[in-house]
Amino acid sequence: METHFSIHMSGFRFLRNVLLVSIAGLIPPLALFVFLSPGFSTALSQGGPALVRFLRQVLTNGLPVVFAINYVGFFLYALSKQTERRGDPVSLVAIDVLARLSLFFCLHALIYVLSADWYGSFGGDRMTAISVVAPTLARSAYFENVSGVYFYATFVSAMPLYVTAIKQSKMFRKAVEPLPFVAGPFILAAAMFAATAVLITILAQAILRIQG
After folding, report:
1. What is the pTM of this model?
2. H helix intervals, the chain
3. pLDDT in tens for each of the 212 residues of the chain?
4. Which of 120, 130, 189, 206 is the most buried (most CB within 10 A)?
């Protein structure tokens, strides 16, 4: 992993690797979502407007969101691997979690507004587009809509950073001790990623209450 994401490689190569991993990370949860949605695979297999809208949604909403979040995750991972870096890597995990939350909400809002302008989505109304962000993201952690696909597709950038931080951090060391020796860091990293999903749900529900 370190050979593919390093602060010493060219910017173009780094961006290319993030894009390739983002596409690869999207495919499994996207396929699972289509499989679990009754009648969805049948509608897509028939082509036509349903397939066009779905592909447009994935390319204009999903891929940009996944790419941006993965870029931050892999950049922080690259920083964590620098031997000259000082300080506990728990700070990088905190930055990553805040970035995931911010980007997930802000990019969805921005893309929804642009979709209203460009494609007439949400009745072409920007305020309607913004108002549906919170209820949509409130259910994404439960994999009930395609936004959940986009969130879980970013798992590929969370794990390398979190596992590395857990292995290096004195703060995380005690939390890992009760867990199996080899699998411990991976179990804790997965739990941290799941906690981020919970935070997204909590924030989205809080916004819903503010919206009334």
Report:
1. 0.91
2. 11-36, 40-45, 48-57, 63-80, 90-118, 126-131, 133-138, 146-153, 155-168, 170-176, 184-211
3. 777 888 888 889 999 999 999 999 999 999 999 998 888 888 888 878 888 888 999 999 999 999 999 999 999 999 888 766 667 788 899 999 999 999 999 999 999 999 999 888 888 899 999 999 999 999 888 888 999 999 999 999 999 999 988 888 777 777 777 676 677 788 889 999 999 999 999 999 999 888 76
4. 189
Q: Which residue has the tokens 């503010």?
A: 210
Place of tokens 């049948």: 42
Q: What is d(CA 51, CA 168) in angstroms, rounded to the nearest whole number?
A: 46
CB–CB of 19/62 below 8 Å? no
